[in-house]
Amino acid sequence: MADKYDAVIVGAGTAGLSAALAFGRAMRRVLVLDGGPPRNAPAEHAHNLFTRDGVAPDELLRLGKRDLEKYETVEVWEDVATAASGSDGDFTVTLSGGDSALARKVIIASGQTDVMPDMPGFAEAWGRGIYHCPFCHGWEVRDRPLAVYASGNMVMFRVNLIRNWSRDLIAITDGTEAPEEDRKKLDALGVPLYESPISAIESDTEEQKLTRIVLEDGTEIEREGLFTNPPQRQSSELAETLGCATVYMEMMQAHAISADPGTRETIVKGVFVAGDAGKIMQSLANAVASGAAVGAFVTHDLAADDVAAELASLTEKQA
């Protein structure tokens, strides 16, 4: 493309659309790349989001895109960024459809992808009985028989939180042993501990809910909900392509893109991150806030760059 966008936003989830809204209202020309279904697509409803509690994930994004329609400087394309190069003020983003886009800034808002374990029934129950976030889904299974599945050194951490929603709780490790101190705590709290990994998940397909957990040692446990954190990977390889740094988050089993805690700019000048791709606290509300903040900070950068360029031009003319 001959024209240069003020920014290209990689990802049209809640973070990307929120950033685009800020840019649109700032009259900045931006391109949003919609890479496909959101991470929470398996869930029927999204929760813990102000004014939209219980909305379907696809409906939430439809509403977000509708909000952008009146801002003529915002474009949304159904395309995926496959590569990027350049430097601050002059990036080239290559798209899967064969086109390329020129941009002054790049915002990575492509999120994370949950890596489903090779476990019968797990993927089918994901978001419909097996959950990642209790703030998103805990209320729907409150006071029901629940389970926590984590490594031995993390299982107590997860139990501490999930007990807020149900005291009918068991803890299962991935085969690694929990520390002796945690064993004593679980015993005192009346939380049974199983240290045989899960081999299969059984669900009621008609009612779309979890019914039974089967362990590798043959133990079968009836449960209606399981909270766990499967490994995650960056949904886009763009951060790696551009040379951004990442940090491993053990609690989330994921690599997050490192960024300034305030401006969310990465170590690559002109490249910013919004949403789950760079956050340890993953939620819709945090993604929306992150996108809005990045939109504002980048707009400040663009405005400062414009003023600097205009002043340099005036100085040159006066010389």
Count of β-strands: 19
Can you tell me the CATH superfamily of the largest domain? FAD/NAD(P)-binding domain
What is the level-2 CATH architecture name of the largest domain? 3-Layer(bba) Sandwich
CATH class group of the largest domain: Alpha Beta
Question: Are there runs of 5+ residues with pLDDT below 50, and where?
Answer: none
**Major sheet: size, sense and barrel closure?**
7 strands, mixed
Q: The CATH topology of the largest domain, please? A: FAD/NAD(P)-binding domain
Distance between the termini: 34 Å
Subunit organisation of the chains? single chain
Helix-strand sequence: EHEHEEEEEHEHEHEHEEEEEEHEEEH
Percent in strands: 25-35%
Work out the count of structural domains: 2
Query: Average pLDDT across residues?
Result: 94
Gyration radius, in Å: 23 Å
The outline comes out as: elongated
Helix share of residues? 25-40%
* Total DSSP helices: 8
- Class per helix and strand makeup: alpha/beta
